[in-house]
Amino acid sequence: MNKTLVSAKANFGTLPVFLTAISTILGAVMFLRFGFAVGSVGFMGTLAIIIIGHLVTIPTAMALAEIATNQKVEGGGEYFIISRSFGVNIGAAIGITLYLSQAISVAFYIIAFAESFEAIKPWVASEFGYELYDNRLFSIPALILLIWLMVTKGADLGMKALYVVVAILAVSLILFFFGTTPYADVFDSSQLFKGATTDKSFFYVFAIIFPAFTGMTAGVGLSGDLRDPKKSIPFGTLSATIIGMVLYIFIALKLTSSASPFDLVNDQLIMGKIALWGPIIPIGLAAATISSALGSFMVAPRTLQAIGGDQVFPNKFVNSWIAKGTSKNNEPRNATILTSVIALIFVFMGDVNAVAEVISMFFMVTYGSLCLISFMQHFAADPSYRPSFKSKWYLSLLGAVMCIFLMFKINTTYAFAAIALMVVLYFYITLKSDNKKGMASIFQGVIHQFSRTMQVFLQKTEKEKTVEAWRPAVLCLSKDSFERYSSLDIMKWISYRYGFGTYIHFEKAYFSKESKENAELKLEKLIKIASSSNNNVFLQTLISPSNTAAIIQAIQQPGISGQPNNMMLFEYKKGEREWLSAVLDNFSVLKTAQYDLCILATSDKGFGYKKDIHVWIRKEDYENANLMILLSYIILGHPDWNKGEIKIFATFPKENIAQEEQNLIDLTSSGRLPISANNIRVLPFDENKSRNDLINENSSDADLTLIGFQEQMFKTENVTEFFEGYDKIGNILFVNTLTSKFIK
Asked: DSSP labels for 382-414?
C-alpha cells in the first residue's frame, strides 16, 4: 500500500466509526420497508429475519475486528484487509465490486431521501397548486449539494454533518418509541405469534429487508483517517452491529403492537402515524438517508483511492490520478469526483430497485470474504497472526456459509452475475497487472497444516500394506533436467491420477552459498517449466559432491503422500554410460532401501505421438510383468495418452505359446485392463535371433517400450550391455520390481 494513502491528519477516534456504521444500519429500509416486513410475516417472522441476517453481520463484524487488530489497517478499509490477505489481484476484484456498491449506494440513499418529501406533496399542491410528480426534483439538488460538500470540505465536514443527522435520527426513534395509537390500546399479546398475513414468501421479504442490516463495515473505510484503527474498528463496528440488532427487535415489537398488519403493509410511512410527533419520521428518514449517503460518500472514494494506490489498473496514469489526494490531508478528491459521476448517473435513472439487489450481492461477497479470511487464519497457524481480538472459527465459517446461502436465496441470477463479474475482473487484473501473487499466501498455511495433520495421521494409522493396495510413490533423481524433459514427463504421467511423484534435480557440487543460490534458481526454473503443463509432481533440488552420495541422500527423502516412497526412477541418454553406470553401481543401495527400480533410456525419437506402449515379457523376468503392465495402464491415464493403447509382447518356447497367451489374456481380462486380446502377441523363442533384434524389429514404431531386468544380472561384469543395443526404437523404460505386484 502506498504510504500516502494514510492521512497525514489521522485524527478520528472510535465515535466516527460507530456513527458511520450505525447511521448506515439504521437507514432508509428501516423507515420505508420495516413496517411492510412486520405486516407480511408477523413479529416472529420478522424476528427470524433479524436473527438470520445477523448470522451474517455479527460473524462479519467479529472477523473484521479480528483481522483489523492483527495488522495496520491503512486507507481502503475492507479492500485493504482483503487484498493483504487474499492477494492484491483477488482483493482488487472484490474491491472494485465493493467500490461500485458503495458508489451506487450513494444514489440509492439519495433517491430514498427524496421519498421523505412525500408528506409535503399534498401541502405544496394545495398551497401552490403545483403537483410534484418526479422525486428527482429533490434527489438531484440534494446529491449536487452533497457532492459540493465532499469535494470542497472533505471528510471533516462530512463527520460534522454526520453528528447532526445521527442526533436527528436518535430523536426520531425516541419519539417513535414514545408514540401510541388506538390500536395499541386493544392489542393482544397473542398476536405476536401470528403468522404471515400476505402471500409474500419469507425470502422475498428477507431480500427487501436485509439491506437494513448491512453497513456495519462502513466505518472501516475511514481506517486511513483513524488515530488507532486497531482500537476504533473493533469497538465501533461491533457496538454498532449489536445496538442495531437490538433496536430492530424493539422496532419490530413496537410496530406489531401499534398498527394492524394491513396498515403496516400498505403505508410505507406508518412510523409517522405511531410517533409522538408525526413529522419527525420524514425528518428522520431524511436524516437517515443523508447520513447513509454521507457514510457511503466518505468510504467509496477511499476504497477507490486505495485500489489506485496499489497500481491495480493497467494504465499508470489512471492509477496515479485515482490515488492522488490533496496535499493537506490526502483527501481523495479525484476518486470523489468519479464517485459523484457514478452516483449522478443512477440518480438520473430514478429507480435503483433492481440494482439494490446487486448491491446486496456485492456486499455479501465482501462479508463472505472477510469471514473466510478469518476462518482460514485460524487453521493456518501463522505465528505472525496475533490479533488482540479473537473471533471463533465456527462463527467465521457460519458467516461465510450464510453469505453464499443467502446470495442464492435472495436472487440466484444476481448471485451468479456477481460471482461471474468478480471472476472476470480477477483474471483480467491478473493478466494485466505485474502483481501475480493471487490467493497463494493465505492458502499456503492452511495447506501446510492440513498436509502435516494428514501425514501424521497416516503414519500413526498405517497398517501392513498388501500387494493389492500398491500404488506408485516415485522418486526421480536427474542431473539432466534442462537438457531433456523425458523423465519429468514420465513422472507427470505417473503422478497425474494414480500415483505420487517427487522429482529431484541433482546439482553435482559442494554445498556453499553459491551452489545453494544456483540450486534455488534451477528450482524456480523447473517449477516454471512444470507449471506450463498438467503436472502434479513435487519438485526439489539436491546438492551433493558425488553420484553415490546423491543417490543415498535421495532415497532417504520422505514421500509427499504421507507414505514412504516405493520406486526410484533414473534417466540417461542412450550412448552415454556415465550416469547409467553410477545408477547400476548403486543397485545394492537401492535394493537395501526396498525400492522398485526404473531406468529410462532416452532416444532422439522421444515419446513420438504417444499412441503405442509396448510391454515385453520373457520367462526369465516374469515377476516384472505385472509392474510393467500396471505402469503402462497408469501412464495411459494421462490426457497426453488419451489415444494410446497397450500392446504386450512375450517370448516363450514354442510348446508353451498357446498356454502363455491364454494366461496373459486371462490376466488382462480379470484385471479389467484396457488391453484387447488382439494386442497380446506371444512370439516363439528363436535361438538364432537375439532378443534385442526381436524387440528392435517389433517395437520400432512404439512411443514407449517397457523391458524388465533382474537382480542376478548384476553378478556379471558387463551388466551395462543389457541396456544397449536398442538403437532402432524410441524411449525405453527398464523395470525391476522388488516384489511381484498383484493384478485383480
From this structure: -TT---SS---HHHHHHHHHHHHHHHHHH-HHH
Closest-CA residue to 475 (of 414, 388, 375, 561): 561
CB atoms within 10 A of CB 38: 29
- Could you tell me the CA-to-CA distances from 141 to 69, 111, 166, 284, 348 in Å, in that order? 41, 11, 21, 19, 11
Measuring CA to CA, which residue among 206, 202, 222 is closest to residue 214?
206
- Nearest CA among 578, 562, 598 for reference residue 477: 598
Q: For 263-309, how does the pLDDT look when each residue is reduced to its tens digit (9 = 90+)?
A: 988 888 889 899 999 888 888 888 878 777 877 787 888 888 888 88
Dmax over CA atoms of the chain, in Å, equals 121
97-143: pLDDT as tens digits? 888 888 888 888 888 888 777 767 666 666 666 666 677 777 788 88
Rounded to whole angstroms, how far apart are CA atoms 450 and 284?
Answer: 52
At which residue does the C-alpha cell 412486520 appear?
38
CA 592, distance to chain mean position in Å, is 44
| Phi–psi pair at 736, nearest 5 degrees | -130, 120
Residue 159's Cβ-side half-sphere holds a number of Cα atoms within 13 Å equal to: 15
**What are the Cα distances from residue 46, in Å, to 29, 41, 175, 205?**
14, 6, 22, 9
**Selection from 364, 45, 417, 310 nearest residue 203 by Cα:** 45
Write the pLDDT tens digit of every residue in 599-655: 999 998 889 999 999 999 987 777 898 899 999 999 998 999 988 999 999 888 787
Q: Do the beta carbons of residue 2 and residue 307 sit within 8 Å?
A: no
Residue 715, number of CB atoms within 10 A of its CB:
8
Name residue 379's beta-bridge partners.
Answer: none
**What are the backbone angles phi and psi of residue 502, rounded to the nearest 5°?**
-125, 120
Amino acid letter for position 305: Q
Q: One-letter amino acid identity for 242?
A: I
Q: For residues 189 and 170, what is the distance between their CA atoms, to the nearest angstrom?
A: 27
The residue ranges of DSSP E strands in 552-699, in sequence order, are 567-573, 596-602, 612-618, 645-652, 680-684
Q: What is the DSSP letter of 197?
A: -
Residue 389's CB is within 10 A of a number of other CB atoms, namely 18
> Which residues, at least 6 apart from 655, have a Cβ–Cβ distance to it below 8 Å?
none
Q: In terms of DSSP bridges, do strands 567-573 and 612-618 run parallel, antiparallel, or are they unpaired?
A: unpaired
